[in-house]
Amino acid sequence: KDSFMQYFVVEAKQDIDIIRLNKAFKELLSVQDILRATFKGNKQFIRNISSLDYIVEDLSINGDINNIIKENIAQSINKLSLEKGHLIEAKLINKKYLIFVIHHLIIDGVSWNILLSNLTTLYNNGHIKRPYPYYKYIASTKEVSSKFLETTKVKFEEINNEIEECNFSPSKVIFEEMPSYYIKDNPYYLSMQEYLILSLLRA
Q1: How far is it, in rounded angstroms, from Cα 78 to Cα 156?
Q2: Which of 57, 59, 193, 194 is surrounded by the fewest CB atoms within 10 Å?
């Protein structure tokens, strides 16, 4: 089960103010949409900040700190639930040790650095910019790709028409077996790369 979870433990150099920490954490949740994500079936939903119950739990525990951290990580892993949409657990132990346990669907190795850096900035009364929404990035990428493919298609049609108007035909077969990277049923023995070069020259 914990193969789908990731956790991170930070030891602070000085005591952490839980009120400031929770304020920074809430602001981080409002800026980073993915941290508010929940999943139903194969669909992802981004929840409103007001519907979340995520807080950093403040704990004071006596004993061996290494065992305490291990036990709290295990407890947090067991609390996470994809079905219930509870994907983040955060705890502050003895005002020194900050534990995050997050489902792998909304965090990865690179994201941890961003999360902790942003949280530190907000805790120190700094400001962070809202990242460009991922769903908008996907939509714009699809739009650009669609336009590029349509333009490329038109260029290829123009090239084919010009070649046909030349009434050019090869004098002999150069390849007994057509390589796989050549266009099927292509009487001019032009590869896709050669078509692209012609397209660029034409443009």
Answers
A1: 57
A2: 193
